[in-house]
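Justification of computing resources. Each target in the renewal requires a structure prediction run like the one illustrated here; the chain below, 88 residues long, is used simply to show the kind of job we budget for.
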Amino acid sequence: MKRQIETHLAMAVRGLPPEKIFQVIDFADYLRSKYAPDAPQRGSVEVILQALEQVGPLQFAPGELDTLLAEIQTMREMDIETYDQLSA
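Resulting structure tokens:
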């Protein structure tokens, strides 16, 4: 039965462009992680490290990391202001 499924899957992706095949693989990885027993939670250190092992180190264009960090700081400050307004 498993062999038939593997054959059917191979036939289903045959002829697709490589980027679409990678989407199929990504979706299969997602399903595997979602239904795995004791799977680490999304956004956890374990999941981030697993993703980095798959894709390699992060690379940023010059100035891009500084921009991202500034945006994160802005969002944190907005969250603090919102929290302060709600608790007052």
